[in-house]
Amino acid sequence: MKIGVLGIQGAIQEHLSILRNAGVEPSWVKDRKELNSVEALVMPGGESTTMIKLLKRFEMWEALRNRIEDGMPVLATCAGMILLSKKIENVVNQDSLGVLDISVKRNGYGRQINSFEVDLQIDEIGPEPFRAVFIRAPKIESIGGEVRVLTSYDGSPVLVRQNNMLAASFHPELTGDLRIHRYFLKMVEAAGQSIEKCAE
């Protein structure tokens, strides 16, 4: 199976690198044709407003929504989470794909200067804490009934799953810890797809 990284803006190279380290060969997805060629997608952090404009300019917006609604596995981090969410609480009229039943607050943990790291306990990836990096991170304000919370920080969910979607407020690609990406790869395999491995 081909796993893509949405490659129009944001932390693209970091996700490509960590996926390779996890043993798969990802594709850099920059247009609708490339989007249609992959069977799972990573949506990186970046600047959500810019990402939305570019997705629409490259005629990928509706195609991406349709693929996710059809069950394509997705891992979304930081701005990627904002794009998936049903509602953005603190920005008037910002569009979103509306596929993940959460409401978020942009920069909910503060601006760039307020970036921080914290150890999180995520039982589904193992007993050792995961070092999470928060950079202008969105804060989840509410979740719907189908959303499962995998871990929280300071009383708010920061890693959630709803069916084929896995979304994190933080940047799991920045620590070198492969466990969240490997968890996503297991989601992909459970969806009935075979993963395209890196050449030995």
UniProtKB/TrEMBL annotation:
GO terms for biological process: L-glutamine catabolic process; pyridoxal phosphate biosynthetic process; pyridoxine metabolic process. In the presence of PdxS, forms a dodecamer of heterodimers. Only shows activity in the heterodimer. CDD domains: GATase1_PB. It comes from the Bacteria. L-glutamine binds at residues 46-48, 106, 135-136. Pathway: Cofactor biosynthesis; pyridoxal 5'-phosphate biosynthesis. InterPro entries: Class_I_gatase-like (IPR029062), PdxT/SNO (IPR002161). GO terms for cellular component: cytosol; glutaminase complex. Keywords: Glutamine amidotransferase, Hydrolase, Lyase, Pyridoxal phosphate. GO terms for molecular function: glutaminase activity; pyridoxal 5'-phosphate synthase (glutamine hydrolysing) activity. Its EC number is 4.3.3.6, 3.5.1.2. It catalyses: L-glutamine + H2O = L-glutamate + NH4(+); aldehydo-D-ribose 5-phosphate + D-glyceraldehyde 3-phosphate + L-glutamine = pyridoxal 5'-phosphate + L-glutamate + phosphate + 3 H2O + H(+). The active site is at residues 78, 171, 173. It comes from Mesotoga prima MesG1.Ag.4.2. Belongs to the glutaminase PdxT/SNO family. The keyword Magnesium does not apply. This is Pyridoxal 5'-phosphate synthase subunit PdxT. Catalyzes the hydrolysis of glutamine to glutamate and ammonia as part of the biosynthesis of pyridoxal 5'-phosphate. The resulting ammonia molecule is channeled to the active site of PdxS. SUPFAM superfamilies: Class I glutamine amidotransferase-like.
